[in-house]
Amino acid sequence: MIMLRKSIPSILTMFSLLSGITALFFVFNTDFQSAMIAIFVAAFFDFIDGFTARLLNATSEFGVQLDSLSDMVSFGIVSAVAASVFTASVIGLHDIDQISLIRPLDLTVICLPLLIAVGSALRLAKFNIDKNQKSHFIGLPTPANTLFVFAFILV
Question: For 112-124, how does the pLDDT look when each residue is reduced to its tens digit (9 = 90+)?
Fold first, then answer.
């Protein structure tokens, strides 16, 4: 019973990860509204997993690492790919088969938003090792950044 109790936060984290992967499927189909819903679900589970871990006194280093990996996919990669796919659609690239027809400058502009994933990885790595961030965030959390990116896309 104790093992199950300690596993609940990690199970919730995996639901966040699955929601993020689902958001990626929607992004690849340029269905940004459905992707945003999946991101909200991922953010919900991301909030609940930490809350539950503290409530059940089931925090662990494994949970911290799993949460960061989940956040990287659900928020870092999804927002970077969404921004890149959106930029490609604005430029006029609607099919991956057209990529050979794109000018190098346009390709650079399309790939530039992928740096969001790099920034997210740096943010999450710093969060994991920074003792000052155990009780509160310093900077912009990756889920908030993703919500900002999607708000920009949807507006």
Answer: 999 999 999 998 8
Rounded-to-integer distance, Cα 82 and Cα 44, Å: 20
Q: How many CB atoms lie within 10 A of CB 32?
A: 19
How many angstroms from the chain centroid is the CA of residue 128?
16
pTM for this predicted structure: 0.88
Could you identify the residue written with the tokens 């189909």? 29
Alpha-carbon span 47 to 143, nearest angstrom: 10
What is the maximum alpha-carbon separation in the chain?
59
Cα distance between residue 46 and residue 76, in whole Å: 13
Sign of the dihedral through C-alpha 82, 88, 93, 98: negative
Q: 55: which residues sit within 8 A by CB, 6+ positions away?
A: none
Cα distance between residue 119 and residue 61, in whole Å: 22
pLDDT single digits (tens) 86-145: 998 888 877 666 666 778 888 888 899 999 999 999 988 888 888 776 666 667 788 999
